[in-house]
Automatic annotation (TrEMBL):
Domain of life: Eukaryota
Descriptive protein name: 1,4-alpha-glucan branching enzyme
Gene Ontology molecular functions: 1,4-alpha-glucan branching enzyme activity; cation binding; hydrolase activity, hydrolyzing O-glycosyl compounds
Keywords from the named record: Glycosyltransferase, Transferase
Organism encoding this protein: Sparus aurata
One cellular component (GO) term of this entry: cytoplasm
Length: 682
């Protein structure tokens, strides 16, 4: 009988999952051993940006190195040799490597000047002659009338030296997701310098302690939002120079703000002349051959994570951004696509273990992610890595030593989808409190999540920001504080604040906001393209709206700022998950406590409540610390903040204590009110 029970258990999905977890950890250990044997360890291996591409030697000679296994011959051409295609051949080495040394000039200066153009000339076995940008190029630019980017040798005489230390890793992570190019009210591409001067002070004032920078890795197509990368080691030149990006990060560090790079290692642009695709003339090189190497929905190429040189390239890429620019970590894009052979296309995830540990899992990419996280967290203990995964892969955010993938956080991607669904499909009186709470709390135990009400995805053309879903066209005419609020504006302002605070306080162990949404940015986001006549009108953030005192945008800004500052003081993001004591469907009231802070939300569109009993864990005296109904936040100021609330030893809704509060508002208006009460222990 015992043997039979054991046999059934041994073949259960949970045990099969455990076997596969052990297997992937063994594969990681094998890869680490191979790195030690072949490369002297991962430290040297991940510094390959110091040997590949172009390197200036102490005597000012230039050393060039490329990996092009399918090439018949390689040559270097450029401004330095008047674009002679044959005068400077590379020497073929083992394992598909090619090397070239350019001796310094007679005056001992380098043979290639700073800020001059270069090309790799690739001769294929089929007799083709191809012109390529080095995959390791650190700076690429595009002339105004050209569509192709050029490799530009970047070697300034006096490079910018960052002076400020990295900030300490925060216990409560509050992320400001930002795009440098749209960070201005002007209908143009904004610069690194503009971001440093005009945006960083706003982020600091708002209380965010981390910035997630999008679209930094060079991408030829601006409208790709940075997700069709062409040059992996080059910071986008459309915003300025590498030194200006270094100054941006250094300035953020001086403010105590960490900076994460939105890194795209899940796929690459199909561009040939200025991308990685067909670098050596073959269909593979850095990628799987077709069809495995093609992503049908993204129209892009997929990396071959089993290739030694691809691992060198990608792991060194992570190290480059950490060392050269001193980023503090990464948000890994497209992790779901990496984890599965089906890339998440046409596949739903119910949570069953068979969905995460079967043959559909791509072990090569999974081991790559484990390797990346192991190396990053070993070399940089304060490094933060965030996974964009919609599948819910178990142990994604557990340490590698535990058999996990090693990420610090995953994005809680179901939350913004839920808010958009509610606003699109339901009347206020039909909101389901239990369903909202389920979405906000449905996460794997012991794996940290970044909660967000909306990100850049929700702002893109075809969708709208939360503010625009709530208030739509009235934002053009009725946002003035000099006129009475219309019912639409009143409802929109209050719900905007409540949705964000509920997400912030209940949805995860970190919080993310996309720039501009903190003040209810109107409209949507759309990059210049053929479909909009190359317009920049929607590819900007209208920070100027905050500078007009009689517009209500600054009221939403003030609430977002004080929400972050209140969290910074009481630390609910670093606390265990919330204890929900009430989710009353009839009253539309949600009550929960977290980090000794009591949250009360009244989502009812018409009802106010007097003497409403709420459950409390810690006995004592409570006072209001944050109130969305305050006038400076666009509310009506109906609550007396001098009121003190005293608990009674009366058990209620699973807590040993309770107290009565008033949740009142003008019932003739579509108003919602929330209270945040901080306990003062007696």
């Amino acid at each position: 009988s015992f043997y039979f029970c054991f046999a059934v258990h041994a073949n259960s999905p949970a045990v099969d999952a455990l076997r596969r977890i052990v297997r992937k950890y063994e594969l990681l250990q094998k890869k680490l051993f191979q790195l030690e044997e072949a490369e002297g360890g991962f430290d040297q291996f991940t510094r390959s940006y110091r040997t590949f591409g172009v390197q200036r030697q102490p005597d000012n000679s230039l050393f060039f190195k490329e990996w092009a296994p399918a090439a018949e011959a390689l040559f270097l051409t450029g401004d330095f040799n008047n674009w002679n295609k044959f005068s400077h051949p590379y020497t073929k080495k083992d394992f598909g490597k090619w090397e070239l040394i350019l001796l310094p000039r007679h005056d001992k200066s380098p043979a290639v000047d700073h800020n001059t153009k270069l090309k790799v000339v690739v001769h294929t076995k089929e007799g083709e002659r191809l012109y390529r940008i080095s995959p390791w190029a650190k700076y690429v630019t595009r002339e105004e009338k050209s569509v192709i980017y050029d490799w530009v040798h970047w070697d300034p005489a006096l490079p910018y030296i960052q002076i400020h230390p990295r900030p300490k890793k925060p216990t409560s992570l509050r992320i400001y997701e930002a795009h440098v190019g749209i960070a201005s009210p002007e209908s143009t591409i904004a610069s690194y310098t503009n971001f440093t001067t005009n945006v960083l002070p706003r982020i600091k004032d708002l209380g965010y302690n981390c910035i997630q920078l999008m679209a930094i890795m060079e991408h030829a197509y601006y409208a790709s939002f940075g997700y069709q990368v062409t040059s992996f080691f080059a910071a986008s030149s459309r915003y300025g120079t590498p030194d200006e990006l270094k100054l941006l990060i250094d300035t953020a560090h001086s403010m105590g703000i960490m900076v994460l790079l939105d890194v795209v290692h899940s796929h690459a642009s199909k561009n040939v002349e200025d991308g990685l695709n067909k670098f050596d003339g073959s269909d593979s090189c850095f990628f799987h051959s077709s069809p495995r190497g093609d992503h049908s929905q993204w129209d892009s190429r997929l990396f071959n994570y089993s290739s030694w040189e691809v691992l060198r390239f990608l792991l060194s890429n992570l190290r480059w951004w950490m060392e050269e620019y001193r980023f503090d970590g990464f948000r890994f894009d497209g992790v779901t696509s990496m984890l599965y052979h089906h890339h998440g296309v046409g596949t739903g995830f119910s949570g069953d273990y068979s969905e995460y540990f079967g043959l559909q899992v791509d072990e090569d990419s999974l081991v790559y992610l484990m390797l990346a996280n192991h190396i990053l967290h070993t070399l940089y203990p304060s490094c933060i890595t965030v996974a964009e995964d919609v599948s819910g892969m178990p142990a994604l955010c557990r340490e590698v030593q535990e058999g996990g993938l090693g990420f610090d956080y995953r994005l809680a991607m179901a939350i913004p989808d839920k808010w958009i669904q509610i606003l699109k499909e339901l009347k206020d009186e039909d909101w389901d409190m239990g369903n909202i709470i389920h979405t906000l709390t449905n996460r794997r135990y012991g794996e940290k999540c970044i909660a967000y009400a909306e990100s850049h995805d929700q702002a893109l053309v075809g969708d709208k920001s939360l503010a625009f879903w709530l208030m739509d066209k009235e934002m053009y005419t009725n946002m003035s504080s000099l006129i009475p609020m219309t019912p639409v504006i009143d409802r929109g302002l209050q719900l905007h604040k409540m949705i964000r605070l509920l997400t912030h306080s209940m949805g995860g162990e970190g919080y993310l906001n996309f720039m501009g949404n903190e003040f209810g940015h109107p409209e949507w986001l759309d990059f210049p393209r053929e479909g909009n006549n190359q317009s920049y009108h929607y590819a900007r953030r209208q920070f100027n709206l905050l500078d007009i005192d009689n517009l209500r945008y600054h009221q939403l800004y003030a609430f977002d700022r004080d929400m972050n500052r209140t969290e910074d003081k009481y630390g609910w993001l670093a606390a265990p998950p919330a204890f929900v004591s009430a989710k009353h469907e009839g009253d539309k009231v949600i009550v929960f406590d977290r980090a000794n802070v009591l949250f009360i939300f009244n989502f009812h569109p018409t009802k106010s409540f007097q003497g409403y009993r709420v459950a409390v864990d810690v006995p004592g005296k409570y006072k209001i610390k944050l109130d969305s109904d305050m006038v400076q936040y666009g509310g009506h100021g109906r609550l007396d903040h001098n009121t003190e609330f005293f608990t009674e030893a009366q058990p209620f809704n699973g807590r040993p204590n309770s107290m009565q509060v008033n949740i009142s508002f003008d019932s003739t208006k579509v108003i919602v009110v929330e209270l945040l009460l901080n306990v003062i222990k007696s």
